[in-house]
Amino acid sequence: MDNWTTSHDRVLAQRHAEGWMFLIEAGRDLGTTGAVAPSGVALARTLTDPVRARAGRPLNILEAGAGTGAVTRSLLPLLSPGSRLDVAEANPRFASRLRQLAAAHPRMGGREERIRIHPRRVEELDTGRHYDVIVSGLPFANFTPHQVETIMDRYLELLHPGGTLTYFAYLGTRQARSLLASRARARRHRAVEDLLTGYHRQYATGCWTVWANLPPAKVWQLTPPASTASRPGHAVAGAAR
Fold first, then answer.
1. Mean pLDDT of 48-70
2. Which CATH number is associated with domain 3-239?
3. What's the N-to-C CA distance of the chain in angstroms?
4. pLDDT band at 6 (very low <50, low <70, confident <90, very high)
5. Tens digit of pLDDT for each residue in 124-154?
6. Interacting residues of 238 by C-beta distance below 8 A, sequence separation 6+
7. By CB neighbour count within 10 A (0-12 exposed, 13-18 middle, 19+ buried), where does 166 fall?
């Protein structure tokens, strides 16, 4: 058996195990996990395109809500010399898995200091740095409007002027919740969507539908201008219009 086959089989087994881990954690707390499967390759690539677009430049990158590391795995090969990746993951079992992933990744090559796993919510993160790119995997649809507002404002605080935030939302969640959720939860979901629409109107610089994901997802790219990138609460005022 050649080395490629052995390596390929190992990767398949690893991702199968991670899928089961994700499913178990979703069963523990779907409210914060937000899905029943890790992000697919196409979704991970779209979320990380702003890093790819800045290839060769030293970047500060933040990933929030990394789960088992589907997007982290896409980010690691993109780290150019001098780049730094901070990962905020509140689930301790996911955080432990992410540490293993970073330590074993061949591109790190003894430079594990370039990536730090922070076992805490992004609202509590304080690394003392600002970021060129933030990639969010947090399930906004499962949060309250106040939680989403707090997280989005924290993202805006952490971005460098002209920095880029990407996040995704699954397609069809409003329709599904209107059929399956209680009226209170459906109202909460609509309020979150309305809140996010306010951010889109002010800061969106791109939006793509990733059909090759299960379920399909929409990726938003937000780039606040330099004059508003560090003003928490600014986007929320627009959301209420």
1. 95
2. 3.40.50.150
3. 63
4. very low
5. 999 999 999 999 999 998 899 999 999 999 9
6. 198, 199, 201, 202
7. buried
Structure tokens at 110: 């003894």
Hey, which residues does 166 pair with through a beta bridge? 135, 221
Q: What is the pLDDT of residues 186-216, one digit of tens each?
A: 888 899 999 999 999 999 999 999 999 988 9
Q: What is the DSSP string of 66-90?
A: -TTSHHHHHHGGG--TT-EEEEE--
Q: Read off the pLDDT of each residue in 10-37 and give the average, rounded to a whole number.
A: 46
Are 222 and 234 in contact by the 8 Å Cβ rule? The answer is no
Q: Which two structure tokens, joined as six digits, stand for 14?
A: 């690893």
